[in-house]
Design goal:
Length: 89
């Protein structure tokens, strides 16, 4: 007993927008991450400096990168969903 597809697939009218937004967010994150790498290469002792509540710069920057990636993913999802609603009306 076969059944049809559960969703209807059609042309993604927002794909160009989503691609450009993804590239921009990737470039932004790459630059922030490159800052982390540059600090580690140029002045690794700086990463041991306590900056917030006894946490080192390495820990704060590292957790910041993780949080930034999550926030950027949420922003990407929100903006892409809004664009899809706008172009599919």
């Amino acid at each position: 007993m076969a059944h049809g597809p559960t969703t209807q697939w059609a042309e993604d009218k927002a794909s160009e927008y989503k691609s450009k937004l993804g590239v921009y967010l990737f470039i932004f994150y790459t630059l922030v991450y490159a800052g982390f790498i540059v600090i580690n290469v140029m002045n690794p002792k700086l990463m041991g400096v306590k900056v917030i509540a006894g946490l080192s710069l390495a820990g704060v920057y590292g957790f910041g990168l993780i949080i930034l990636a999550i926030v950027m993913g949420l922003i990407y999802n929100y903006l892409c969903t809004q664009k899809e609603y706008a172009v599919n009306k």
